[in-house]
Known about the structure:
This is BON domain-containing protein. InterPro entries: BON_dom, CBS_dom, CBS_dom_sf, Diverse_CBS-Domain, UCP036990_CBS_BON. By secondary structure, this protein is an alpha/beta fold. The protein has helices spanning about 5, 20-30, 50-55, 70-80, 85, 100-110, 130-140, 150-165, 190-200; strands spanning about 15, 35-40, 45-50, 115-120, 125-130, 170-175, 180-185, 205-215. It has nine helices and eight strands. The strands form three sheets. Strands 1-2-3 form a three-stranded mixed sheet. Strands 6-7-8 form a three-stranded mixed sheet, with helices on one face. Strands 4-5 form a two-stranded antiparallel sheet. Strand 6 and strand 7 (about 180-185) form a beta hairpin. Helix 8 (about 150-165) packs across helix 9 (about 190-200). The relative contact order is 0.13.
Amino acid sequence: MxxxxxxxxxxxxxxxxxxxxxxxxIMIAADCSGLPVLGDDGSLRGIxxxxxxxxxxxxxxxxxxxxxxxxxxxxxxxxSSWRVEDVMSADVVSVMPTAPLGEIAGLMAxxxxxxxxxxxxxxxxxxxxxxxxLKAVVAGLPDRIPRGEEALRxxxxxxxxxxxxxxxxxxxxxxQDGNVILTGIVETELHRKAIKVLVESLRGSxxxxxxxxxxxxxx
Length: 219
């Protein structure tokens, strides 16, 4: 999946010349925690978030830096100005509509951000939030599997190969009387755990009988 498949659109945004009050009103109306900031030409100029607004002097949370220092002056402007341009973050991480979800999740982790604007030809066409990514995760989770013991056995064997690259001859899968019975040898305990996680995601109400051993377990 790509950014364009999960992004939120249309995007609530605010003008770079707008007031902080206007930005807050838009956030509340759109029920969102961050807004792309657009220039007069519609280009992306920055982003303003709830985090930026929590540094306001009205909340009495200004840093106790020495007056006149660069940090103190920056905090004063950020916490006292009523112009979006002064409070927004100008260094914006954005992606193209074709960006894969793994890339977006990586950017969020590296930059400690909660949302990424999606930009095409200099215009914001959508935004991907952590919540959007979580929705994609849920959509991709396997359903509680096929009915019938043979269907379940085949599904597990197929996923062991496709997901974990384990050939059918390495891990024997049997389904009998509501039990999923696994037998075989794997290299490490991590391999064994991955198999168990995969089977538990597919087994439905079946009980897992785990007879898989690691090389270290062999006499």
